[in-house]
Description:
Layout: H1 3-13, H2 20-24, H3 30-45, H4 49-75, E1 80-82, H5 90-100, E2 105-109, E3 114-118, E4 128-135, E5 138-145, H6 156-168
Antiparallel strand pairs: 1-5, 2-3, 3-4, 4-5
Helix pairs in contact: 3-4
Amino acid sequence: MSDKELVEYIKVHKEYPRNFYDYLNYSIFMIPLFFAVMSLTIIKFGKEPVELFVGILLLLFAILVSILFQKKLTTSRRFHSINPKSDLTLDKAHELIKSNFKLLRSTVDYELYKIDASEPMTFFSYGSEITLLFDRDIILVNVRVVPSFQPFTLFRDRRNLQKIIKLLT
């Protein structure tokens, strides 16, 4: 898929198209599946009320972790639309991003009205990629982890997204 086709896809669907690594990241669901199987085993073969209680708690934990993983995996692909300041241009947005984030690189594509920026690796994250797409009177913003094999970060991507929204509105 070319850059122009990718931008058009994002503008229509408000998310990145799925690729091999997006599907591979669903292997993280092996963790809650393990807890669910373990809890069902405890519930089936447990003879004490305490064992039944522990099995139910483990099953609820597995369901909760599955919901959390699903939410984080879909959030990393989605673009958030914001209404920018009225005088915000592509160059001003690029300068705001460069001055408020520690970036490895940042590029502006004037033909596609797109800003791409990459953050460096930290102790808890391999880094993230910031994408801004200007579409008429809105800006589509996404912050996603750089290597696709890392499913998500704990809070950094969400914090960066909130910081960008605050800067541009």
